[in-house]
Amino acid sequence: NTALEQEDPAVFDLIQQEKWRQYTCLELIASENFTSQAVMEANGSALTNKYSEGLPGARYYGGNEYVDILENLCRERALAAFHLDPTKWGVNVQPYSGSTANFSAYTGILNPGDRIMGLDLPSGGHLTHGYATAKKKVSSSAIYFESLPYQVDMKTGYIDYDRLEENAKLFRPRLIICGASAYPQEWDYARLRAIADQHGAYLMADIAHISGLVAASEAANPFEYCDVVTTTTHKTLRGPRAGLIFFQRAPKGEKNSDLEEKINFAVFPSNQGGPHNNTIAAIAIALKQAASPEFKQYAIQVRKNAVAVAEHLKKRGYKLVTDGTVNHLVLWDLRPQGINGGKMEKICDEVNITINKNAVHGDVSAFTPGGIRLGLSPLTSRSVKEAEAVQVAEFLHEAVQIALRIQASTGKLMKDFLAALPTNPEVIALKAKVK
Ligand code: PLP
């Protein structure tokens, strides 16, 4: 019996149940992955007991001799995993998550009220890239900064760079953010750099979703063009839940020479307190793994599996945003089938397939999105190859077909009963309302 089992059987049991769910369900959430046992061991280690506000060598607490070595090791591995020259790039490994990494990056390089442009949420962007609805500034990135999102082209689903450039001329942003939560295509970092330079703006890439692919050189390299790069560590990178902020370093007086100080200060003391040393140890392990030849093979397989799913769904006649994928995810537009993403998510939950509803461009409401997002990174960690990926796509197709068939039959059956009440005023009023 473990200590946890003895001390708290209720929590122990819930963890076992969740573990079993993870073992037995088809996990297709694009932002998730399965970390290694080593990562989990470090995450649950004695490091969780330690306070270490500050940076290695300059802490506000004693007893940090091992934590300092650990954080420096993590920083070295982060730069190595992304093939970065330590004289040109630095990294802060303390952010608790992707959201706090982004907000710290903004806090460091912007003033309150500065203008930012990020990909709109319904176009695949993330909340923290300045999301606001017509009625409400949702994300703190829209509350504390002026946000004008850019969109994908409504016909193709690809980023509309021409419109972004036109709008940037009017808006004159201080920061352009690239990166997404649901964009299956590559980014044109050179074009974005050129647009940012027209306005003396910073260019930041949030590579949360694709960082494993970037580390494995299976995606374009944002570091060639961006001033700042943020990422989560738990998606394709396959580490614990946390964030990283990479920033350019330069000699005093040159462009970006102040980024290191500004970003480190923004993380602590501006936005965070003590770093989670257990998580930093786990990130260090994941980064060592990400620099290995096995991880390169993993990243290649992730992309092959995503393509296999996309091609099979297309063969079955479905519509995919951008008509395919070059990364780890497939964005499936279910509007032609008349099933919204929420319904599909529920149907899949019942048959042990874990997916998430997702907005697709042109959706009227973010609350009833018309699509679903499928990510192949978790199943690839479970050694799934193209043949099984195709099988998974076929399961999804069957789920859609069965749901459509039963939906049509129940509709028809109940129509006959409704026909018996043609003049009932309540039925007439309701029919007009729901239509
Ligand atoms: N950035 C992007 C592009 C994301 O997709 C996400 C999460 O899904 C985040 C940031 C936020 O990460 P976290 O949930 O760790 O705060």
Descriptive notes:
The protein is of the alpha/beta class. Helix content is 45%, strand content 12%. The chain has helices at residues 3-7, 9-24, 37-43, 65-81, 98-109, 140-143, 161-171, 189-198, 211-215, 259-271, 277-290, 293-315, 341-350, 377-381, 386-418, 425-434, and strands spanning 26-27, 54-55, 58-59, 89-92, 115-117, 146-147, 175-178, 202-206, 228-232, 243-248, 319-320, 329-333, 353-354, 356-358, 371-375. The strands form four sheets. It has a seven-stranded mixed β-sheet with strand order 4-10-9-8-7-5-6, sandwiched between helices. Strands 11-12-15-14 form a four-stranded antiparallel β-sheet. It has a two-stranded parallel sheet with strand order 1-13. Strand 7 (175-178), helix 8 (189-198) and strand 8 form a beta-alpha-beta unit. The longest helix has 33 residues, at 386-418. It is globular and about 80 Å long. It starts with a helix and ends with a helix. Bound molecules: pyridoxal-5'-phosphate (PLP). Residues 31, 97-99, 102, 126, 128, 179-181, 206, 208-209, 232, 241 line the site of pyridoxal-5'-phosphate.
